[in-house]
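Suppose a classmate hands you a notebook page containing two proteins, each written out with its sequence and a corresponding row of structure tokens. How would you begin to make sense of it? This section walks through that situation. The first entry is reproduced here exactly as it would appear on such a page.
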Amino acid sequence: MNELSAPKKALGGADVFLGLVCAILFADQIATNTQMGPSVIVWWIIAAIIIFIPNGLVTAELASTYPDKGGIYAWIRRAFGSKWAARTSWFYWINIALWVPSAYVWFSGGLIGVFFPDAGYWVEVLIGVALVWLTVWLCTKSLADSKWVINIAGITKILIFAVIAICGVAFIVNGNQPANVINAQTMAPTLDGGLKYLPVIIYLCCGMEILSANSQEMRNPKKDMPRAVIGLVAICVVFNILASLGMLNVVPVGELDIITGVYQTMVIALGSEPLAGFMFCLLLFSVFAQIMVWMLGGAVGAMEAGQDGELPKVYAKESKKSGAPIGALALTGIVSSAVIVLYGFMAETAGDLFFTLLAFSSIVYFFPYLIMFPAFIKLRTSDSTQRAFKAPAGKFLAILCEVVLVFAVVLFVWAPDDNMGFDWGYSLSIIIGVIATVVLGEVIVNHMLKKKGRMLDRPDD
């Protein structure tokens, strides 16, 4: 990076924590999780034990030991060399380019469903495309200029989760019966709904390394990242359980909409559509900021790979003024827009489109982590760098996370129905999309490595 455009150390400890809250506390997924019914409470506890806490500890060690620009890309490059790092950057970037459409389909579906219910389905698609390019533009600004948006969104997310939990309590205190039976029997994990929605919970337990891509803008990443990650895990588990409980008290599972479920809950519990509408606007704002964090994080890693000659030069283009990865951001906008329109022709409703895009992008989303955990084990074994934070039983935790992620990939493809059946139409569309993404990535990465004309498979010294 040009020294004149080198970013200032803009992010303090509070900024790092709120940035992670903004990125990882997925308020748009509360209704999706809660459709599991009361068993979601136990599934969250199980997920915390087998993936969220282990992943948090492993990520905290990596982020504090190797506060390198590029985050997960830099860690994998240290462990396995440039070729695997390039693959990781491709998966990370393309996953976000594929996830952004699902997030904005949810956003536009909620906006239309709550405020403009008579608008057509294609209005939602067009709004999604417009939001993609608004996000691209805002991501070209420096974090020093935009961190206040992310910080406010982090606080807003905490508020939303708290309000949903309070709605559940207020609904019962006002003399209403719970909308769903919540007891030991109904909370017991089941293999029908659980297998369908469990991978979504596992999906929500990843991504804690996202701000590490911008570690060069942190004042003290070795100290702040472990604290922020461990605090984030505690908040996410507790708040997701409390929010699901609140929603279950208010809305029958069979009537819960995955797009407007938060609004449904607030309208019924608060008895005020204007107040519920205001809170839903805050939710939309927080989701918008969340997408900003992810889009920028993925683009930074892709820019690093582009500048190292491992991805095409267009990814390497960098703003001289802000240091933003403008080449990767522009490509993200193009791919995300195309995917929204393409899937718009394939899905009948916003809900169908949302879940299909989520499943497709989530499988690709898991690929970098399937490489990261072996990289952690390799670095633990071969690298003697002093660790500011060391995860207890780190190698075992990394193996556990690897197994859980493989299981989640299978469930995203399988997506069993109530009869444990197999929907070939749904699964094949996901499988074909994933294979095409992997093959395209291999073609690009291998072409670029051949172009560099040197062997890059060996780990860096």
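The notebook's second entry, a different protein, reads as follows.
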Amino acid sequence: MSDWKERLGVVFSTNPDYKYETSAEAETETLDTSKQNLKVWLDRLKGGRVATVVRGFVGSDDDLSSLGKELKKSCGVGGTAKDGEIIIQGDHRDRVVELLTKAGYRCKKAGG
């Protein structure tokens, strides 16, 4: 007998062959770099600080993290990569767009 927590939301089924399947979160497959459509812009953080934000990445958290790490290293600053976006401390839009374009990503500078 399966654990009741695995059956959340299912009370009863009239089908004797019914097998309840838990919805395991599937890892998002990372798109090819040429199919990525990234947007790079400037954002104001708390305290008036500025940050370069890269949004639109479609892929796994590991790939997002490694891309963020590469961008931070190339710009020589700190930042973070989570929730589908990369935040680089400071105004590095031109440098980030140049790096992403060289890596084969489709990207454009937006706003700011």
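A careful reader of the second entry would note: The radius of gyration is 20 Å.
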